[in-house]
Each structure stands twice: as structure tokens, then as C-alpha cells.
Amino acid sequence: MLNFLIQARWAGKQAPEILDADEAAWPFNTDSPVLQDVVRQDRTLSIMLVNLCGLDWVEIEPLLPVARAGAREQDMLPVIIVDMTDVVPLRNTSLAYDVLPSVRANSPILPDLDWRAYFARRKALLIEKWQPEAIVHLGSDQDW
Q1: Bridge partner list, 135
Q2: Given CA atoms 24, 28, 29, 34 in this order, what sign does their dihedral have?
Q3: Dihedral, CA atoms, 118, 26, 141, 109, nearest 10 degrees?
Q4: Collapsing DSSP states into helix, strand and coil, what is residue 82?
Q5: Nearest Cα to Cα of residue 79 among 59, 100, 58
Q6: Does pLDDT of 79 surpass 60?
Q7: Cα(83)–Cα(96) distance, integer angstroms
Q8: In terms of pTM, does the model score above 0.70?
Q9: In this structure, what DSSP letter does residue 17 have?
Q10: Which residues lie across from 96 on neighbouring strands?
Q11: Half-sphere exposure for 130 (CA within 13 Å, toward CB)
Q12: Is residue 42 a contact partner of residue 57, using CB atoms and an 8 Å limit?
């Protein structure tokens, strides 16, 4: 039935490829609570990375509704990027998140390590992992 409706809508045009549920939800599981009705089977999931590095939870919390609304307007799923060590409050928001190391907090621990290069490599891996359609910078970290 779904294929018939799509064919009827796209008659005479190139119809979008129908993805299976797992493909449409990648990199999440189909039952992941972070998806919140953003998965569609006519396209892959679009990710918006929202950089909140350099901020504390008190500064991050009021920005989460802004990040969620901005991503929804663009038909994307927000993935929050932080450099905090305590991610429990973030875990309770039902938003996807990832963590980068804090150069400011970690550089005194290993002063001989090139933290800027390490951070740049971790950021590149994070971008490769999520394959975002957009990156929004709301944080105060100058290394982004």
C-alpha cells in the first residue's frame, strides 16, 4: 500500500527510494527514543551536530530546546556535542549526544601532549562517525 501511494504521488517523476526501517534510522536503532518521529523511509536520517563545548550544564540546559527546535525546522535530528565529564543530566534529556575531551581541563594532566592536535583528530573522528548535514556552534570553546 505504501509503495502504491508513493508511486501515485510521484507519477511521472523519479520516486524516492524506499529504505528499510534500519537504513532510515541509521546510526540509531529503530526503537531509539531520540528519533521522536523524525525517521522517514523516503530518505536517510539527517544529523545536525550542535556544539556546546566549553559550557557547563547550567548554560547548556536552556539551549537544548533551541537546538531541538532548530533541528526540527530543518528536518534533522540534533546530536549534542559537549566536553563535560558528567553527562548524566544530558542523558536524561532523550537527546543523542557525544563527548569530546576538554583541552582546557586536560592539558594540565599531560602537559607534553599536543592537545590541540588530539582534539582536532577526535573532532574529525566524531564528524566521520555522525556524518552530519549541518554543524551549529553554540558553545564557547575556541577549538571548534
Answers
A1: 49
A2: negative
A3: -40
A4: strand
A5: 100
A6: yes
A7: 14
A8: yes
A9: P
A10: 79
A11: 25
A12: no
Task: Please state whether beta strands 77-82 and 96-99 pair in parallel, antiparallel, or not at all (unpaired).
Answer: parallel
Contact 121, 46 (CB under 8 A): no
Neighbours of 32 (CB within 10 A): 14
d(CA 98, CA 84): 10
Grid cell, residue 22, equals 534500519
Q: Which amino acid is at 75?
A: D
The answer to whether residue 95 scores a pLDDT higher than 60 is: yes
User: In terms of DSSP H, where are the helices of 1-144?
Assistant: 2-9, 21-25, 57-60, 64-73, 88-91, 103-106, 115-130
For strand 134-137 and strand 77-82, is the pairing parallel, antiparallel, or unpaired?
A: unpaired
Looking at residue 73, its amino acid is: E
Report which DSSP code applies to 51: E
Q: Are 103 and 119 in contact (CB under 8 A)?
A: yes
Q: What is the mean pLDDT of residues 9-24?
A: 58
Q: Nearest 5°: CA angle at 46, between 23 and 21?
A: 20
Say if residues 123 and 139 touch (Cβ distance below 8 Å). Answer: no
pLDDT in tens, 115-133: 889 999 999 999 999 999 9
